[in-house]
Amino acid sequence: MNPQIIIVIPVYNHGKTLRRVVTESLKIHNKIIVVDDGSTDNLKDSLSGLDVKLVRHDKNLGKGAAILTGAKEAKKMGYTHIVTIDADGQHDPNDFNKFIPLIFENQLSIIVGIRNFEMTDTPSSSYFGRSFSNFWFRVQTGQKICDSQSGFRAYPIDVLEQLKLTEKHYSFEVEVLVKALWAGITIKEVNISVYYPPKELRVSHFKKIKDNYRIARINTKLTMRAMLPLPHKKIVNLSNDISPFKMALSSSLGVFLGTLPLIGSHTIAILFASSFFNLNKFVALSASQLCIPPFIPAICIEAGYFIRHGRFLTEISMQTIGYEALDRLYEYIIGSILMAPVFAILVYLIVYIFAFFLIKPKEKNTAKNWTSKSIGSKFQHKIFYFLIRISGQILSYPLLYIVVFYYVLFSSKARWKAHFYLSHRFPREKGIMKIINTYRLFLSFGKILIDRAMVGILGTSKIEINFYDKEKILELLAEKKGFILMMSHVGGWQVVLPTLSFLDVPVNMLIQREEGDIDLHYFEHRGISPPYRVIDPTSYLGGTLEILDVLKKGEILCVMGDRVLGSIKNGVHINFLGEKAIFPYSAFKIASVTSTPIVIFFSCKTGYNTYELKIAEIIRVPQNIGRKGELFIPYIEKFVHALESFVKEYPYQFFNFYNMWEENYKNQRKENDY
Questions:
Q1: Going by C-beta distance under 8 Å and a sequence separation of 6 or more, which residues neighbour residue 8?
Q2: CB–CB of 163/85 below 8 Å?
Q3: pLDDT (tens digit, 9 = 90+) per residue, 531-546?
Q4: Contact (CB, 8 A) for 211 and 171
Q5: Strand 32-37 vs strand 464-467: parallel, antiparallel, or unpaired?
């Protein structure tokens, strides 16, 4: 969709210059909103006879508030973008045309005009103010910008609506750029001209004390937030996964500054430098822990001693480290300056080599909205498999804590996988609590994957499985109709699946194996055939003929009840965790045709090496009730209710990492478009 653009001119007591600015702007673009921010100079007369939309604040609220009011009014009028022009006459409205191609090419970007200070008699305060603001902008975002104070800008209205902005005055213009970058929005720049009239003719409402205080206050807040090693909420789903180069460079910076004699200020220096160079704060801080005394400082002292005396210090006594403490401090300073770059280069090379093999390359986006592939590289999986072979869970679990910590903090793609479920299961928990929940969810998932591999590598004797409903299963088998075992992506169904070996009938599994998936099923570790027959849902007619055949023979069919395979037309919307989500109905339709009962079957991890199997409910769908999905909603709701009860009891054992609520969001967006 092509962007719809309108000019917004915020004004406060600029009656002498406003008419000229608006008149010149109308020659370029005939869609203009003027926001009167509580002017007292009879502003309305300045606009008489001009075809513009006038919006007024009853009192002066500030330039930022005026821009947001203009954006809100523009949204009501059907516009997608605003271009702000100052009312004091410093901007040339003809430069508006320079913004248009950039807006069309970058519809989610904020575009800032770079004022050319070389073409006019620019006040020295403007030079200093721009340089000062640009410096702190880089500290807060790690990115350079040429003019963070320019008021000639283009804003996507949707971006302004989604950013949490607190400033209403001139400080707004700094805050909006910083928070936009944090949120994943790009900032583009374009060269513009600027005009500064003679000092006696300038109209400015910048209050040197009050507005400078506001700018200093917001810069302090933004800098402190930037230095916190916590991820920012994204409004654009751009992947910012850390690369081997960035991880190595962050580690190198941490070790470099950690080695230097910045006594009592290492952490502040590392956070500041990481922000300035746009490096990862967590990695830099973690790497700096290698420099904790006594090892690295001792090496630096030895290097400094060698530089001073031509030999190493070999005597450790009260004389050398007590009475000569000042000499050792001097040698520590000399040696740390020498060794800091050496350690930094060494750490960079080591981390880069390891990260190159450990960090999985980003995959191209596909049309599918879900994936069965596990996170991680083939090399990482082999490390875990090796540890499982030699120690079971003893060594693999501790490594898992570190790996999960890494992915939760540094992989936006991994966090995004968990976002959909966690935002519905814990709707009130934001910020650090959401990160903690993500960590707990992935940790639980990782432990179950380890247990699954352990069952395949070391056998079922390493896991204790409690199944209290065997009698119900045997009673159903006695009916000679077979049954549909409806599972879900919860707990460890592959861990407990071997317990079905007591059944005397074949087990069939409707499952789709994604091409390129490196994660092994439990039986693949032993190189044996699967203990169940696999029916491929992508085969002819979605495997329907095979499904009907196995049920006709009285066999067991295992299906997943929480994921639609193929077209979304095969699903219906059921309320799940407070919002409509999509669930498949094909199994219920087959149950109706074949008079086969459906057994809702959940597994859960209850301890270090213990699991439990539960039959939540047995559903019998009336025979031949029809073909439309809506007819099966009452029976699907029973499954969904059981699933909801399970995730409320075991909130960190739901592993369906795709947006089940996506279609509902699409419908909401469509409604908002009309």
A1: 32, 33, 35, 67, 70, 71, 74, 82, 83, 84, 85
A2: no
A3: 677 787 766 566 778 8
A4: yes
A5: unpaired
